[in-house]
Design a protein that fits this description.
The complex is a heterodimer.
Chain A: H1 2-6, H2 9-17, H3 23-36, E1 43-46, H4 48-60, E2 72-76, H5 103-110, E3 114-119, H6 153-160, E4 167-170, H7 177-183, E5 186-189, E6 210-214, H8 217-227, E7 257-261, H9 271-286, E8 290-294, H10 302-317, H11 335-346, H12 349-362, H13 368-388, E9 394-398, H14 414-418, H15 425-429, E10 434-441, E11 447-454, H16 459-473
Parallel strand pairs in A: 2-3, 7-8, 7-9
Antiparallel strand pairs in A: 1-3, 4-6, 5-6, 5-10, 9-11, 10-11
Helix pairs in contact in A: 3-4, 6-7, 8-16, 9-16, 10-12, 10-13
Chain B: H1 3-6, E1 9-12, E2 15-28, H2 67-79, E3 87-88, E4 91-94, E5 104-107, E6 117-123, E7 126-139, E8 143-145, E9 154-156, E10 163-169, H3 176-193, E11 205-215, E12 225-230, H4 233-252, E13 260-265, E14 270-276, E15 286-287, E16 294-295, H5 298-306, H6 312-323, H7 327-334, H8 337-350, H9 356-374, H10 385-396, H11 402-413, H12 419-426, H13 434-447, H14 449-456, H15 462-473, H16 480-490
Parallel strand pairs in B: 12-13
Antiparallel strand pairs in B: 1-2, 2-10, 2-11, 3-16, 4-5, 4-15, 6-7, 7-10, 8-9, 11-12, 13-14
The chains are: A alpha/beta, B alpha+beta.
Chain lengths: ~475, ~500
């Protein structure tokens, strides 16, 4: 059984289609492993019993034309799932059971997949280590007491630890790519507007985007193909021709021009990151593509810009959690007292910090200096990319400025925590697609990732580049099953 | 009335003060569904039966603009002779309240859908132009109900997310009468357009009233106070009167006026401070990232322009030209779209040989009186335009006298009866046969010989006596004009 969970999504789909495996076999295997993996704390809610029922039902009348036939899958607990508790990693939604399904998960179930459970994440996706979750931190399968990254930390841990064949996360400033990089898996943040935000608990509306996380690029392409759709229920969803990403996947990237932005060579970046990047450049060349030095001059403003725009939107998006309609409510003397107690007790420290920052930057007298200026800088950052894309087809950078760190190491230093996102946030600010692929290990044997940033709606291109590089890199994740007794 | 006489001023000893008023009217968009969701908007539904997940702000729910509401706002803008902005932006106005599920109201702050415009008021001393500053779209909030339970507040979200148009006037109004005329004109225009039903009892039209005072002749504005959420014209007028006098008193006492938001207490007939400028909410407006800026094309606007019906000002002009009505009469007929519709239908049904003046007099006289006494709108008139037209024609062609017509009209009210039939059934047809009338009059003169002699000797007052006798003898059916003629001849 154990080798079932080692299979990639593509292999599992093939084996189910060839009737070498049943959905029940596969579902059972992942449930078994998930049950043995409670120490990772990757799940907030499991739906194993019902998943097994669904798998059996699928096997009675298997529809093998579907893209994810009978494939079990756990998803980040930021996606609303009908009749299944959805918490966003927060106490304030601890008892919240949606009566509706997010468009992205709906797309997944429509292709035959089966929900295994809901995966842990930073509270309201605010965090880079999965330590802000009300449901406790997540352990990385890479090493004990190592963070899996965040905010999609449970998702990364579950894929790397083979608790689910693939999963979906959300990425507002790096929340898919950074944990993917930390756990040695592939994570794609699609172009803003590619995947519907309907039914996803909002963090920062103009930046949030759902995306796939997988063991390899092909699986990632397949899942992206399933989740991306135009959705009239999301006014920011965009109608464009969506590729059959997995079918059209090719490792032929000869003649592609890949930009290497000098501004990503930041102060204090460890040598192993620089080395990894150089290795990446070599892989690109080995694939027959060309690298070109480029400049993205406003890169250094991306992080401060992000930490104005995202909290501003969050402060407003999270106003609805007021104890009046659903979720946690504290007793209060009057309405204001109830609000204050509900939100003080219901939100964790990081969420409160960002609500305060956001409220401050939107306040009259500060709006122009912070929010409005940040929006202008955001435009400049986007222009940087537009300029660069006149010369190159994609851009290669490290995914993160360091490898994974220990649990507790950065919890008292928010700024150093925020610096984790330095290479990923510009991509969100510009609304572009970005993919992180595992590319090597640091001296401690922890995974390191490289990021490929594409033009808007050019997911196919960066998937192809990632696919070609993946072949050259031949990365092997070192999963020791340390948590399984 | 001269302009001087009509000026609304507040007098104190030797000082005269002018009142400056600006209105922010909240008009509910006439639409089956809400501004950003598909829930229904019917008035008076059971609490919380017209609430979608979007209206109740469930996690992950997103607003989607209702195109119909956009069209309604643009049409209203066209009706207000205003600039339609091809690009407008929806902003979030952030504040906490139990009946505001999102914790913010989606509104338009910097870039409204409609810019500057104007409306013309017909005042007794002539026309007055009132500037429109802007019109923007926004969501209504829900309703908190505090009196159902001693401990708890109940929330009804049926209104939550309903589309409102906020129409902001320039500070061009100078009296409660002008405010009355302005609100009525706005209401009239929107009802013509079908963009707001203007029903103040149901809260479809409410206003925030900005009031300031200044010495007569001064060009500077005084400090203004905003009176929130007044829901009838009468209350607006009372509130303005009270507030203007309060401000004048402060100035006369040498005190300063604080810029603040006030509430009008309809029971005590006074305004009360709600919050001062210092306590004003910081709404932290910013563009709603869930909605892209709204862009409309020239073609879209042009198509809506072609869809605009004849509006009150144009209709009035036409009525004066086509039907030779006075400005006053035309005003009465056009101010309400249903009255205008009724009138035009009566005109159409009267056919070729019509007496429009007579019809107008009867509409504004008898018909209005009946509607008033029964508390009905003209759209609910118990007498249809068709039968009303027949009645006017019966008077016009001499079949019945005006006096008999009143009797007939009263009978028509019950079940919209055909006046022709009433006249026939009750035998009310006017006696217009000169020979029969002559015989009748001869008999009366014979029976009253002495009085006839007195009349001839110069007691002219007695003429009326003879008319009365003749009418009485005919059972009121004699043609009064003929009676007069014959009497004059015979006496």
């Amino acid at each position: 059984m154990s080798d079932i969970t080692k299979q990639s999504l593509t292999e599992l789909v093939e084996n189910i289609k060839n009737k070498k495996l049943s959905s029940t076999d596969v579902t059972k295997a992942f449930i078994d492993r998930s049950e043995k993996s409670m120490e990772l704390n990757a799940y907030i809610t499991n739906d194993f019993t019902s998943a097994l029922d669904k798998a059996k039902k699928f096997d009675q009348k298997p529809n093998l034309d579907l893209k994810l036939p009978g494939i079990p899958m756990a998803v980040k607990d930021l996606f609303c799932t009908k009749d299944i508790k959805t918490t966003a990693g927060s106490k304030i939604l601890n008892n919240f059971v949606p009566t509706y399904e997010s468009t992205v998960t709906e797309n997944i179930w429509n292709e035959g997949a089966i929900l295994l459970g809901k995966l842990n994440c930073d509270e309201f996706a605010m965090g880079s280590s999965n330590e802000t979750s009300f449901f406790g931190n997540v352990q990385s399968p890479i090493d004990k007491n190592l963070v899996p990254g965040g905010s999609s930390g449970g998702s990364a841990s579950a894929v790397a630890g083979q608790l689910t064949p693939v999963t979906i996360g959300t990425d507002t400033g790096g929340s898919i790519r950074q944990p993917a990089s930390f756990t040695g898996i592939v994570g794609l943040k699609p172009t803003y507007g590619s995947c519907s935000r309907y039914g996803i608990v909002a963090f920062a509306s103009s930046l949030d985007q759902a995306g796939p996380m997988a063991q390899n690029v092909k699986d990632c392409a397949l899942l992206q193909e399933v989740i991306s759709s135009y959705d009239p229920k999301d006014s920011t969803s965009i109608e464009f021709k969506r590729n059959h990403y997995s079918k059209e996947l090719t490792n032929n990237i000869k003649g592609k021009k890949i930009g290497i932005p000098k501004e990503y060579r930041v102060d204090g970046m460890p040598k192993e990151i620089e080395d990894l990047w150089q290795k990446g450049i070599q892989y690109i060349k080995d694939c027959g593509a060309e690298t070109i030095d480029i400049s993205l001059p406003n890169t250094s403003y991306a992080l401060p810009t992000y930490y104005i725009v995202a909290p501003a939107e969050a402060s407003s998006n999270l106003a609805r959690y007021d104890g009046v309609k659903y979720g946690f409510r504290a007793k209060g003397e009057n309405l204001i007292d109830m609000y204050e107690k509900t939100r003080s007790e219901g939100f964790g420290a990081e969420v409160q910090r960002r609500i305060m920052i956001g409220t401050y930057v939107l306040s009259s007298g500060y709006y122009d200096a912070y929010y409005l200026k940040a929006q202008k800088v955001r435009k400049l950052i986007k222009n940087d990319f537009d300029e660069a894309y006149k010369k190159v087809d994609a851009i290669l950078t490290p995914s993160t400025p360091s490898s994974a760190f220990k649990i507790g190491e950065k919890t008292n230093d928010p700024v150093s925590m925020y610096l984790n996102d330095i290479f990923t946030v510009p991509v969100n600010l510009a609304g572009l697609p970005g993919i992180s692929i595992p590319a090597g290990h640091d001296s401690k044997g922890y995974p390191l990732g490289l990021q490929i940033i594409g033009k808007a709606f050019d997911e196919q291109n960066i998937l192809n580049i990632a696919y070609a590089m993946e072949e050259k890199i031949n990365f092997k994740n070192k999963i020791t099953d340390w948590w399984i007794k | 009335m001269s302009e001087k006489d009509s000026e609304y001023l507040i007098n104190r000893k030797d000082n005269q003060y002018e009142v400056v008023i600006g209105l922010e009217v909240h008009a509910q968009v006439l639409s089956e569904s809400k501004l950003f969701s598909t829930s229904a908007t019917k008035f008076g539904a059971e609490p919380n039966t017209q609430v979608s997940l979007v209206d109740a702000a469930f996690p992950g729910m997103l607003p989607v603009i209702n195109e119909f509401c956009i069209k309604q706002a643009i049409k209203t803008g066209i009706g207000l002779n205003a600039k339609i902005n091809k690009r407008s932006v929806f902003d979030r106005k952030n504040y906490f309240y139990a009946d505001l599920p999102q914790g913010y109201q989606i509104s338009q702050f910097k870039d409204p859908i409609v810019g500057e415009g104007k409306v013309i008021l017909d005042m007794p001393n002539g026309q007055k132009e009132v500037g429109i500053e802007r019109l923007h779209l926004e969501q209504d909030a829900g309703k908190s109900i505090h009196d159902l339970d001693p401990q708890n507040t109940f929330v009804d979200l049926n209104r939550s997310g309903v589309a409102l148009m906020e129409i902001v006037s320039k500070p061009d109004l100078r009296s409660p009468d002008e405010v009355n005329a302005y609100i009525k004109k706005l209401r009239s225009i929107m009802r013509y357009l079908g963009t707001c039903d203007g029903n103040m009892q149901e809260g479809s039209l409410r206003a925030d009233v900005n009031v300031s005072v200044r010495p007569k002749g001064s060009k500077e504005f005084g400090t203004r106070c905003e009176i929130k959420n007044v829901n009838s014209i009468k209350f607006m007028q009372m509130a303005i009167e009270y507030e203007a006098n309060r401000q004048v008193d402060l100035i006369e006492e040498g005190k300063t006026i604080d810029q603040e938001t006030r509430l009008f207490d309809t029971k005590k007939n006074e305004t009360r401070s709600m919050r001062s400028k210092e306590d004003a909410h910081d709404y932290r407006y910013f563009p709603d990232p869930d909605l892209l800026p709204l862009e409309v094309s020239e073609k879209f606007i042009e198509e809506l322009k072609n869809d605009i019906p004849e509006l009150p000002d144009d209709k009035k002009k036409r009525f004066i030209e086509e039907f030779k009505l006075s400005s006053y009469e035309a005003n009465i007929l056009v101010s309400d779209i249903d009255t205008a519709k009724y009138f035009e239908e009566v005109v159409a049904k009267m056919g070729k040989n019509k007496d429009i003046k007579l019809a107008v007099n009867w509409i504004t006289g008898e018909l209005f009186a009946v509607l008033n006494s029964k508390g009905l709108e003209i759209s609910q008139s118990p007498v249809s335009a068709k039968n009303f037209a027949i009645l006017i024609n019966l008077i016009k062609n001499g079949t019945i006298s005006g006096k008999i017509a009143k009797t007939v009209f009263e009978l028509m009210i019950d079940g919209d009866k055909d006046p022709q039939k009433i006249v026939e059934e009750k035998g009310l047809k006017q006696q217009s046969d000169p020979k029969a009338l002559e015989a009748l009059i001869d008999k009366i003169i014979n029976d009253n010989r002495e009085k006839a002699i007195e009349y001839k000797q110069g007691k002219e007052k007695l003429f009326g006596f003879f008319v009365g006798q003749a009418m009485k003898a005919s059972g009121g059916k004699a043609n009064p004009q003929l009676i007069n003629e014959i009497l004059k001849k015979k006496l």
